UniProtKB/TrEMBL annotation:
It comes from Mycena alexandri. Residues 150-172 are annotated as: Disordered. It comes from the Eukaryota. Residues 153-172 have a biased composition (Gly residues). This is Uncharacterized protein.
Length: 360
């Protein structure tokens, strides 16, 4: 008996017709009867005049109903060969994918990954779950209010998320200089204790603060601070000189948004809607060989998408570690596997996906 080892020829490629000018659901409007309601959804134009980047909500609703009709077989799609059910099924799948991509709708052929990107918040809770809100007092000295904040004693490192830890100010350069300059108490200086919290602020100072005319003041986290009129004036002269520099540093640090460092999040951003990955996965997957050598050793002649997708699959299943739950990456893996299987079948490759993943 002679065995034929020639690969099975790939099925003919699906060529979708142009998008019709009017798309509607249901595709066939039945006869209307008195007392019955019939909802008909239609897509009349591809974009909205005022929002060219996003389709209007009514078009997305119409696309969803059309996708549901296609999934249950209620459509008027025909092919060149009416006796080829496989070609008809693949044409329906391609039509569903085209609608899903055009209107960002999840379906049996499309899915989307949402990545939360919270903005860094300077009011970050500590490990105890409470916010640092130090008590603030204002002490009048020669008409200039000195702002002093008593430390709450609940400091510590803040917890961070995927996008890095937001920066927490420690009082600024001027505050540290002031703490260092007041370490040695001058003779005859007035000592401010914690009981000074209840001391009143003079009326002219209160009016200036209420009117918004007071200068920007800095909070000093201290337990007991010796404040004299001379040292307070020196502090604010020094602080005003340093304000502009520190504000520029704050703006630079706020604008420089940290890049994601979690490998699972990076892979989620790199995965396409159809499940494939690009060569950008090499920023996460470290190879022991050169990329060209690794591709040849894996399977000679494969495309960049298949090569990168197999690497991502092997990384997800073997390199993430036991601390990462399988539920968090299983959907990404399954979608990538379907893409590789379909691509290998279309290219007439007889090697299995599991074998390629094991080599990777």
């Amino acid at each position: 008996m002679q065995l034929d080892f020639e690969p099975v020829p790939p099925p003919p490629e699906v060529v979708l017709p142009p998008v019709p000018q009017i798309q509607q659901s249901p595709f066939k409007i039945r006869t209307l009867s008195p007392g019955n309601r019939l909802n008909v959804y239609a897509i009349l134009q591809a974009t909205f005049p005022t929002l060219p980047d996003s389709p209007p909500a009514i078009h997305a609703l119409a696309a969803r109903t059309m996708i549901q009709d296609l999934e249950v077989g209620q459509h008027s799609i025909t092919t060149k060969d009416p006796n080829d059910p496989d070609l008809l099924a693949r044409t329906v799948k391609a039509s569903i994918a085209r609608l899903g991509k055009a209107f960002s709708i999840s379906s049996s052929e499309t899915s989307f990954v949402a990545v939360d990107e919270p903005a860094p918040d300077k009011t970050t809770p500590t490990h105890s779950g409470r916010l640092r809100q130090p008590d603030v007092i204002q002490i009048p000295t020669r008409g200039t209010p000195v702002v002093v904040a008593r430390s709450s004693g609940r400091g510590g490192a803040t917890s961070g998320g995927f996008l890095g830890q937001p920066r927490v100010s420690g009082g600024g350069k001027a505050a540290r200089k002031q703490l260092a300059s007041t370490a040695a108490r001058k003779p005859g200086s007035a000592v401010v204790k914690r009981k000074s919290i209840a001391e009143p602020v003079d009326a002219p100072v209160a009016k200036r603060v209420a009117a918004g005319g007071a200068k920007r003041h800095r909070r000093i986290l201290v337990e007991d601070l010796d404040v004299t009129e001379e040292s307070a004036d020196d502090f604010f002269i020094e602080a005003d000189k340093d304000d502009a520099e520190e504000e520029e540093e704050d703006e630079d640090e706020d604008e420089a948004e940290p890049a994601p460092t979690d490998p699972l999040e990076v892979l989620a951003r790199l995965q396409s809607f159809d499940g494939c990955f690009s060569l950008g996965v090499l920023s996460v997957v470290r190879l022991t060989l050169d990329a060209a050598q690794a591709r040849t050793a894996l399977l000679e002649g494969i495309s960049d998408d298949i090569f990168a997708t197999i690497l991502a699959m092997a990384f997800l299943s073997n390199k993430l570690g036991a601390e990462v739950e399988r539920d968090s990456w299983e959907a990404m893996y399954d979608k990538a596997r379907v893409f590789v299987e379909d691509s290998l079948q279309a290219g007439g490759v007889s090697v299995g996906v599991d074998e390629l993943e094991t080599k990777a």
